[in-house]
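Next comes this protein:
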Amino acid sequence: MRRFLIAIPALVAACAHNVPQDAATGADGRIKGAHPIRLENGQGIARGIVTYPGGDRVDWKSIELPAGKRGTLELAMTWTAPRPGLHVAFDVFDQYNAPAKAVEHHHRHSRQASIDHAQGTYFVRVFAPNRGDAGAYKLVASFHEDSVQVPVNLAALEIPDPPKLAAVPLAVQPCDTFDAKNPSCADQCPDDAPATWRGCKTTCRTPDVANAACWTSMACPTPPDQRVADCMADPAKHWPVCPDFAHPDPGNPLCAATYIQPIEASILSVEQQGDAMLITIDVGSTSKIDETWHVHVLRGQTEELLVGGESKVLRVSKTRAVAKVRLTFDQVNANQRVRLTPR
């Protein structure tokens, strides 16, 4: 290697193909002349210049690891080129001149390589890869000795007996066909099993309202049955309108209070009673109203419920109903509409 960093730009500018790559190289241009990198406290540094157009393309370095030691050899190189786009590279060989197995990482202006379980001597070839490449480089070698493993005295170890394996389960015969003696058929209902078989009590093979297992899967029968899910999904589709909510038919779900339509009415009169108001409404028992119904005073001509205007019906006649609400006299006079609901 020859030191002529100032000369790099001029050499690069020269016609590269007219200069042999080793025209200006020194002894370190061959592996036999490799310049040693001496390790002190596990680290050594080498610097130099390689230039393809300048005729000094290759520098060889040697690294001798501590005798009898084995560890990780890490190599890191950075370089500065005379102009953008030029590169410097390196590769590693072992003491037998064979390529070393290294984990490599390449970056824009740096390269790293790591060799595990390294021992003996290694050679590093720093070079300009292509015609026109050149650069001043810095190569850092680091060696980290493998940790010493203390041999284990196997004879001194007391190894407990392994746990006993669980017994291999007996092969299970599936219930593909009915067999009363097959344990797998105890809760199964194959197609050839009798309808009275205990495993068929929880299976719906044929839609039957008497079989509870069919209630979630069968279609609504005729007449409809409240136990069947399909019937109760849309009761109005399968039952008629309840004819008399005062005397509901237990077999007709539409007679439930939830299906009673609200009734809108008007306030006929108001009477103050303590801090509340007794209101008389123009509907009564002929409209199926009774003492279980509730009254809701509406705000003006809207459908909004007036706060304090909710109460249970107190008394009912054929055409009138009476309720007590927590409103003022002026509030009742200003809001004459009510809605009655079964709850």
